[in-house]
Amino acid sequence: MAKKRPQTKAKQPQLKDGEIPVVGAREPCPCGSGRRYKACHGRAAAHAVTELVQRPFEGLPSEGDWVALRELVPAATVELKLKESLPEGVPSVTLATVLPMAWPALRRDDGSVLIGLQNDTASGDISRDLADTLRRALTAQPGTPIQGRRAPADGPRLQELLDPEGAFEPVVHAGFEFWVPDAEHSTPEVTASLERANAAAIPTVKLSGVDAAYWCETPDKNHLRWVMPYPEEQLLDALARLHAAGRSSLGEGTRLVGSFRAHGLTVPVWDLPTGVTADDVEKPAAEFAERLATALASDAPLTPDERRARGGLTNRQVTLS
């Protein structure tokens, strides 16, 4: 009896990485390797969209304000300028801290686009997710909210879409009336939603004399939260030098109490007496910036007192992202 000849499979053409389409995780990889997609080229794609980008706003104008609006400021908007001209029918693109119903974005009836910054994102790169949302909003039908999704791993980031020379000038609002162009004629449901959102918003003011510093008012005391662009270790050393020397406050009754860590930047926080307003800390903040610049320039070893001060600041550091 003749032996059966083994069946041979036609050799699949080998594709280059850039030509391999995305398929289901358990399907054969289109590259022809014979393995499932998730164990072959899908592995790199999944890693690309889940790997955490520590500083997603690095390279954008006013990185500190991006971080503040993402984590600290309740209600604010910023007009964005794109590298390319806006599509026909899109008069403007506005970044907002929060949108109604936690929508990632909204194409208004007039064609303008609002992008929400404080939404949860599907991947580890906030910049890529926001860029994907922005691109979809620019082509959506007017009057359409944009739903969230996982951005393609090879999709652009905000740094590729926004004009690097464009000004980034946040406008802090007392409430969320910017959600609707004509709040006086809103439906009862919208009015109730606005009232709830406004009641939860902490009064916040952006200082004008220094970058990315925000005063806020709480029932017990006020605070200044200042997003700083310096490397964390260098900044903590400088803050420790000033703290040990008794020069870290912003005036009588104020106290540097610790810091946040958010999106790769450090955010020192001061407690302020209830009566201290944003205007009251403008001059002290500018003077502190000068003292900090001197401390940042020092490379001398920390003294025992400065090391203790640094340890205290580090122990009171909270990571937001």
Report on the biggest sheet. 6 strands, mixed
Question: Could you state the order of secondary-structure elements as H and E?
Answer: HHEEEEHEHEHEEEHEEHHE
The tally of helices reads 8
> Termini distance?
71 Å
The helicity comes to: 25-40%
Overall structural class, as computed from helix and strand content, comes to: alpha+beta
Gyration radius from CA atoms, angstroms:
25 Å
Rounded mean pLDDT is 89
Describe this structure as you would to a colleague.
It is globular and about 60 Å long. The termini are far apart. It is built from eight helices and twelve strands. The chain has 321 residues and is α+β, with helices and mostly antiparallel strands. The strands form two sheets. Strands 5-3-4-2-1-6 form a six-stranded mixed beta sheet, with helices on one face. The protein has a six-stranded mixed beta sheet with strand order 7-8-9-11-10-12. The chain has helices spanning 41-50, 63-71, 126-138, 158-161, 188-200, 232-244, 278-297, 304-315; strands at residues 76-79, 93-96, 105-107, 113-116, 144-146, 171-172, 204-206, 213-217, 222-226, 255-262, 265-272, 317-319. Helix 6 crosses helix 8. The longest helix has 20 residues, at 278-297. 33% of the residues are buried. Residues 1-13 have low confidence and may be disordered. A hairpin with a 5-residue loop joins strand 3 and strand 4 (113-116).
